[in-house]
What does this fold into?
Amino acid sequence: MLTLPFDELSSNQTSSPIRTSWATNQIIKSVKPEPGRALQDTLKSGREDGERHGTEEEEQEEEEAGGDLRRRGSRKKKLSQARQDRVRLRRIEANARERNRMHGLNNALDSLRKVVPCYSKTQKLSKIETLRLAKNYIWALGEILSTGKRPDLLTFAQTLCKGLSQPTTNLMASYLQLNTHSFISESGGESFSLYPAYHHYRAEGVGASSADNGRPLRPFSSFCGPYDALYDLSPDCSSPLDAGPLSPPINFNGIFSLKHEEPVDYRSCHYGLRYRSISQSSSADINPYDIHLCGQFYQVQEDLNKPFPN
DNA sequence: TAGGCCATCTGGTCCT
DNA sequence: AGGACCAGATGGCCTA
It folds into this structure.
């Protein structure tokens, strides 16, 4: 009778039952016990047996094998049954550790997905795209910090999408399109944020303007406000990508363009957001450099609120 | 159906 | 010796 190492499996749940059963099969394949002996027994006693019995036998075998190696070169050493079991057990343990390690890595990647733009619960970026986008995002933010200037929308978008695949670029374009118009063109639908912080503001009803029926607007130029992420570290938000299909982005110049929208006066809203952001923070939390940046943000707000040049 | 993405297994290497 | 890390191999799932 075959007994599976369920302890190992249960302590290392995969996200998919299919995966789990597949893993189970793999273990069955990789841990074929000898006939008439339960695997559990094998695993349970493997280490002790291996250590206890293995010593004499192994020494003898190794001596033989060593002698063979000296005489004939490459003959593979034959292991005792106890040693084979022990090797199997160690392999199973190593597999479990490796699975855990990869799960940890995936969790970290999920965390990363939540803090880069373009976060969607259902339409997840691939691992490689997440890393690329994160790199671009960091680079773009660093550029803003070092120069003290915010790039225009297209430049920033192009920076973010540098090296990304076409599907991801399209996804990004879809985000940006919605960011510029969906809040006011659709009522009742779930809105989204290029920056996770938006939902925090929205949930609190901060920054609603008269033009949006009480619905808080994300300003067109808010795309250039990456500091949002500094003020909210709980990016558990959904996106319109979770809610339904998107209109295809308009591509041009090898990257993408944004739909041209009628200019909307977002400024009151956005100033409100900014003020709220800063005022909500305790003085100890405020980095002087942040204040400087935010101040600068206001100065050029008007320019950035101009309709995006096509 | 091909290709992309992913999870897992596996053996090798390095480090403690 | 044993664990962490890595990269290659493999096979499943999904989508265009």
Notes: Residues 278 and 284 of chain A are 11 Å apart (CA to CA). Chain A has 14 helices and no strands. Residues 16, 18-19, 22, 26, 90, 93-94, 97-98, 101 of chain A lie near DNA strand C (CB under 10 Å from a C1'). Residues 81-115 of chain A form the longest helix (35 residues).
